[in-house]
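Quarterly update from the structural biology core.
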Amino acid sequence: MTRPFVTVVSGLPRSGTSMMMRMLAAGGMPILADDVRRADADNPLGYFEYEPVKSTADAAAWVSAARGRAVKVIYVLLRKLPPGYEYRVIVMCRDVHEVVASQAAMLKRSGRVGSDLSEERLTAVFTRELARMEGWLEAQTNFAVLPVEFRRCIERPIEAAVEVSEFLGSRLDVQAMAQAVESALYRQRIAGC
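Predicted structure, tokenized:
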């Protein structure tokens, strides 16, 4: 089935975007990804990123090759996607406290230094940026948006897979999508989130 739109998987870092890309690929959707960023201890099943996306603000020619495929685009670059295309955006939603904890664990594991912001301040910044992104997306006539809760994907993967398949108007293999969810990788789980 040819899809005339670009399927975009987006969200905060560590919000489950790689998991969703893996689900889409398992379900039979073509994806736009390369192996520049290789799997590691933080994403042992892969990142599913496409290097040219990082330069979208300066060069967005890659978007024409993304029509009919899924591609991962970090939330700050959504505004840089060129007009003239229809986008269906799957926004992965994860409790911001879990995102911050997961990011801190990733930085610690890699020996890198993160932001100088405290966890509380970073949580506030991410929360504010998400609200801005949501407001901007609502105003775009060429963007359709489906928020998908990370925890729901982990706990009820079939439901999430069906919802995503219907949003994309596809006949994706929802069983294969659900099987692509690896619940053991749900680390930095915060009770009550």
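The CA atoms of residues 9 and 17 lie 6 Å apart.
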